[in-house]
Design goal:
single chain; two-stranded parallel sheet; seven-stranded mixed sheet; alpha+beta; 11 helices; 14% strand; 236 residues; 9 strands; globular
């Protein structure tokens, strides 16, 4: 951020609120990997956030869910207010005002992505990510069907499950298996050809280019054959 000349934004933010890095950037740091983008959640209001970004004189766009995408020279920042986070906004994850850090971590969809660190105090939460690595099991953190059904990224969640299973050799928890099975059925009902639909969405995510058609088909077949098993490990 110093190289990008963006530290002033955070200095101003810390005068009135807090910021939390969530998910991949923090995980990649722990795994000694580089990242192209960083996801941040702040407890500022939307108006305060937009005002600070305007003061920083950087290019940004606001997506349809209210998040801000800031384009810097070497990295992109996606920053959300807590009020616009889908899990909190829809009251699907309880926000504990006395433990916001862990509330944010619990709001992540998959345990592999459930990492959060307070950029001001450096307190962090990696409990669910650690469980994922220790068990080699990809799990959706929330059991609530409403939480899973309201998540707007169905195809992206399916692709991510395939990607993580392939790259990190993760098996799937029963909660994840049930989600994948039901959502592939939902896509089949809506689009008729779930394979074609998922392949089309894959083109929006360059990092998922390593997912081949056979990987998706393997998921379909293994889900059909493994519905009675307690866990599923894909042969990808």
């Amino acid at each position: 951020m110093k190289i990008e000349g963006f530290m002033g934004f955070f200095y101003e933010l810390f005068m009135t609120g807090s910021a939390y890095v969530v998910g991949g950037y923090f995980r990649d740091f722990l795994l000694s990997k580089s990242s192209r983008d960083v996801d941040i959640i702040t407890d500022l209001s939307q108006n305060q956030l937009i005002s600070l970004v305007n003061n920083a004189n950087v290019n940004f766009n606001i997506n349809r869910h209210g998040g801000l995408k800031i384009s810097l020279t070497q990295i992109e920042i996606d920053i959300w207010t807590i009020d616009n986070n889908w899990a909190f906004k829809n009251n699907l994850v309880k926000l504990n005002e006395n433990d916001i850090l862990n509330s944010i971590a619990k709001g992540c969809f998959y345990n592999f992505d459930s990492l959060a660190i307070n950029l001001h105090t450096f307190n962090y939460s990696i409990r669910y990510f650690s469980e994922c690595l220790n068990k080699k099991e990809l799990n959706i953190l929330q059991e609530n069907s409403i939480y899973k059904n309201l998540n707007p990224s169905i195809e992206a969640n399916i692709l991510r499950a395939i990607y993580l299973g392939k790259i990190y050799n993760l098996k799937y928890s029963p909660n994840t298996i049930n989600y994948l099975f039901s959502k592939i059925g939902f896509i089949a009902d809506k689009f008729n050809n779930p394979l074609e639909r998922i392949l089309t969405v894959r083109e929006q995510y360059p990092k998922y280019s390593i997912i081949k058609e056979n990987d998706i088909l393997n998921l379909f077949f293994n889900l059909l054959e493994g519905q009675d098993s307690k866990q599923l490990k894909l042969d990808l």
